[in-house]
UniProtKB/TrEMBL annotation:
<keyword id="KW-0489">Methyltransferase</keyword>
<dbReference type="GO" id="GO:0008168">
    <property type="term" value="F:methyltransferase activity"/>
</dbReference>
<protein>
    <submittedName>
        <fullName>7,8-dihydro-6-hydroxymethylpterin dimethyltransferase</fullName>
        <ecNumber>2.1.1.-</ecNumber>
    </submittedName>
</protein>
<dbReference type="GO" id="GO:0032259">
    <property type="term" value="P:methylation"/>
</dbReference>
<dbReference type="InterPro" id="IPR034474">
    <property type="entry name" value="Methyltransferase_Class_D"/>
</dbReference>
<keyword id="KW-0808">Transferase</keyword>
Length: 134
């Protein structure tokens, strides 16, 4: 999990996402964390290196040429129903992140023919329709 720092590696977010999408046989997800400062740090350095979740949204959108937009990202707990569905479908436990909605964001992105297909959370009716065994 890379820690994102303004001016150090914030220009590599798109490359990290592309690397993951080209290595789906071994990479199942990408997690990134904005830098967090604890202890003593002067104001100038904090402002220089500070990187926020909204900064990450902007970089993701810019560095994927708009294929993944800030509107594709949701508060982390809102995708728990998708994890629940995957758990039923696969018959095995799935990771479920449940935390304060302002502490992060996530989405599920499919990769098809080298293109990102976001908005998985907002799909109304897939074709063919998904069925869940009961």
């Amino acid at each position: 999990m890379p820690t994102l720092i303004r001016g150090v590696n914030d220009d590599q977010i798109g490359d990290i996402i592309r690397f993951a999408s080209h290595n789906l046989d071994v990479v199942k997800g990408v997690n990134m964390q904005p830098v967090s400062f604890a202890g003593r740090i002067n104001q100038e350095d904090r402002e220089k290196w500070r990187f926020t979740i909204p900064d990450a949204f902007k970089c993701i959108e810019e560095q994927t040429d708009g294929e993944i937009t800030r509107d594709d990202l949701y508060p982390v707990p809102c995708v728990v129903p998708i994890s629940n569905f995957a758990e039923v479908k696969k018959g095995m436990p799935q990771v479920k992140f449940t935390m304060h909605p302002h502490c992060g964001a996530e989405t599920y992105i499919y990769v098809e023919n080298g293109k990102y297909i976001p908005h998985v959370c907002s799909v109304k009716q897939p074709s063919p329709p998904l069925t869940v065994p009961v």
